[in-house]
Design a protein that fits this description.
Major facilitator (MFS) superfamily protein, mainly alpha, Growth Hormone, Chain: A, MFS
């Protein structure tokens, strides 16, 4: 029995000895949970305090995700230039200041503050989100230099990410339904400050990372992008010449177009007008998928994968779309929660595949730059999907949000099945 239990964790045991990596995971989880509390509060306020919520929710998703996508290449260039520690600490401080203004604006919602002020502040914060995300992505390779440990390290990073998606929305739902929205934003700001302090400590204990960072750049002086434009050109050129990168880009584009862009708009409206539920259920729906995702990541991170990564990613993402089809046609809270749980398990390995391919194939000196270019072309479809859904809801009404979700999920399933079985997808 003990041996079987040990085998269940055998790939994870070595990584737990890396204390700085473990602390990095914990503080990242806390800060992301706080950020999700702010997102739940903001979307709920826009849904319940103003007329025509679909307009503001659509604008919120389009503007925030456009800001994220457009700024990703430049922020990735800054991470390659500054290093992950400086970049992460800087972005944390800037976002804390912006959230302070958001907190102040929500204090005056009942006094006539425009919803566009709230949308604008969230958009401003999302300009700096890619600086945080690319820093965290590079941080994994800085703190985990043994490539054999990258798969379990990426699995654990995905687990903490979705643990945040369990904790954050549930806490956010409690704040909007009982405790009060203002305390939730204070929690978010506190989580960012905690992240910044801990990362300062980790940076002092890992001064040697800069030697490692500089050595790799010194060996690639000709390839090292010196300006943002050069970084952008280098990133695009690398992606075009590397089939795995193109595959990840295409799959990510479709996924954001048909699922992740639309559900940001659909979830709150689907909860209120189709499921006829409150803010707690809204937070529950956002969280239950993460429970399945965590279980799926844990299992996937402990497996020896011998399948084509790109083809498997496409198939799993297609199945994820099919599950949203069933959610849309059977609007029952228990059924929806079960399907979202299964969806998390199904989609979990794709997160590991995507990160590991990039960390192994992209040279360190351009890791953030190339990854951010990938993020731009993948995530630019997210606001397009949000705009599409917002237009459909405004045309047909909130009560059709479930059917819209079902149609988009079915389209994603068909598209991914067609793409995944192309011969080129089996070579990666």
């Amino acid at each position: 029995m003990k041996r079987k239990f040990a085998r269940l964790f055998e790939n994870y045991i070595p990584i737990w000895g890396n204390k700085d990596y473990v602390w990095f995971l914990l503080v990242s989880m806390f800060s992301l949970a706080g950020d999700l509390v702010a997102w739940v509060i903001t979307t709920w306020v826009l849904t319940t305090q103003f007329d025509h919520p679909a307009v503001y929710l659509t604008a919120l998703v389009i503007l925030t995700q456009s800001a994220y996508a457009i700024m990703s290449p430049y922020m990735g260039h800054l991470v390659d230039k500054w290093g992950p520690f400086t970049s992460l600490i800087s972005s944390t401080g800037i976002r804390t200041v912006i959230l302070t203004f958001l907190f102040i604006s929500l204090l005056y919602v009942e006094d006539g503050v425009s919803p566009w002020v709230i949308v604008g502040l969230m958009t401003l914060e999302y300009i700096f989100v890619p600086l945080s995300k690319q820093s965290e992505f590079v941080m994994i390779k800085v703190l985990v230099r043994d490539e054999e440990q990258l798969i379990p390290a990426n699995a654990l990073q995905g687990i903490q990410f979705d643990a945040s998606y369990i904790i954050g929305p549930l806490i956010g739902g409690l704040f909007v339904s009982t405790i009060g929205i203002y305390y939730g934003l204070v929690l978010n700001m506190a989580s960012f400050l905690f992240l910044g302090i801990v990362m300062l400590i980790i940076a002092k204990r890992n001064k040697d990372y800069r030697d490692h960072f500089n050595v790799e750049q010194a060996d690639n002086k000709e390839a090292k992008p010196k300006t943002f434009i050069n970084s952008l050109k280098t990133g695009i050129s690398f992606i075009v010449k590397t089939p795995p990168m193109l595959s990840i880009l295409l799959i990510g584009f479709l996924w954001n177009l048909f699922v992740f862009g639309p559900i940001e708009v659909l979830y709150p409206i689907f909860t209120v007008d189709v499921l006829e539920s409150n803010g707690f259920v809204y937070g529950l729906l956002m969280s239950v998928n993460s429970v399945g995702f965590i279980l799926g990541l844990f299992l996937a991170g402990n497996m020896k994968w011998k399948v084509p990564f790109a083809m498997t990613m496409g198939i799993l993402i297609g199945l994820h779309g099919l599950l949203y089809f069933f959610i849309g046609i059977v609007p029952n809270i228990v059924f929806v929660c079960v399907i979202l749980f299964l969806g998390g398990i199904v989609i979990a390995p794709t997160d590991i595949f995507s990160k590991t391919i990039r960390q192994k194939m992209i040279p360190f000196h351009m890791l953030a730059g190339v990854s951010s270019v990938l993020a731009f072309f993948s995530f630019i479809s997210k606001p397009i999907g949000a705009f599409l859904v917002g237009s459909l809801i405004n045309t047909y009404g909130n009560q059709y949000s479930g059917y819209i979700m079902a149609c988009l999920g079915l389209i994603l399933f068909i598209a991914c099945m067609v793409i995944s079985f192309r011969p080129v997808m089996k070579k990666i």
